[in-house]
Write a sequence for this structure.
């Protein structure tokens, strides 16, 4: 069963989830009083059932306790059942902080962690059949490897018109920017302006070394920046005890 958690309130999401369950497993959706009852019912099923909750961050926003509830259910019921539960979503920052971090309720309970990479150009061109190669390159340069963006590409419009319609006329990009804290915006702006080393960023952003490294690790996890080591960097400048850190010699791109 595949369920997309839309930006709704808790009650609406619960009704839609129950309806999705009823479409796959013969049962009366109205029999469930709350989320616990739904998952307990799924745990009692004898046959193997795969349940995918996509955009899990929306469910967490609507029901902040949902991860703690799943934790309790998993520890006492779900892990011994035939249920395969998959939590997915495009907000990698959310998953790193709220799902994968040591303090998160679901920490250590995932059987498999899978981060999907962006769609490569060789596959993205198949979603742009009405354009020549140069136009495909131009579109991919802006749209990147996000498959859903190519669903809105129209071959009867120019590259520029498609970019305006998909990127600038869409609230998605604006929403992503609004999720960033003022410090995160300052760090990314500094990188865009050409600031590359840790020490330069520290001076430019006026934050603590710990906070800066935490934000940089998050950005790298999200694929927004990458760490580059100059070939001639002395080994001793890499940090102490062989630990990975963003030192003066490390460049950000």
């Amino acid at each position: 069963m595949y369920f997309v958690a839309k930006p709704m309130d808790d009650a609406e999401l619960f009704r839609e989830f129950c309806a999705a369950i009823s479409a796959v497993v013969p049962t009366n959706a109205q029999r469930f009083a709350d989320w616990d009852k739904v998952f307990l019912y799924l745990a009692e099923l004898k046959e193997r059932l795969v349940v995918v909750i996509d955009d899990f961050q929306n469910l967490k926003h609507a029901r902040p306790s949902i991860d703690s509830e799943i934790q309790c259910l998993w520890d006492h019921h779900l892990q011994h059942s035939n249920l395969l539960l998959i939590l997915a979503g495009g907000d990698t920052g959310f998953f790193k902080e709220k799902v994968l971090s040591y303090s998160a309720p679901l920490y250590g309970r995932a059987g498999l962690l899978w981060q999907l990479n962006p769609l490569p150009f060789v596959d993205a061109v198949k979603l742009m059949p009405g354009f020549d190669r140069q136009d495909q390159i131009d579109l991919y340069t802006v749209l990147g490897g996000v498959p859903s963006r190519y669903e809105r590409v129209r071959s009867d419009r120019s590259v520029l018109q498609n970019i305006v319609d998909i990127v600038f006329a869409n609230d998605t990009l604006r929403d992503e920017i609004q999720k960033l804290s003022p410090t995160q915006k300052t760090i990314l702006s500094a990188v865009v302006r050409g600031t590359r080393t840790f020490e330069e960023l520290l001076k430019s952003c006026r934050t603590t070394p710990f906070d800066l490294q935490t934000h940089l690790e998050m950005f790298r996890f999200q694929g927004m920046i990458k760490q580059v080591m100059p070939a001639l960097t002395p080994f001793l400048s890499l940090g102490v005890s062989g630990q990975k850190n963003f030192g003066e010699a490390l460049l950000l791109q």
Q: What stands out?
A: Residues 49 and 83 are 5 Å apart (CA to CA). The chain is about 45% helix and 5% strand.
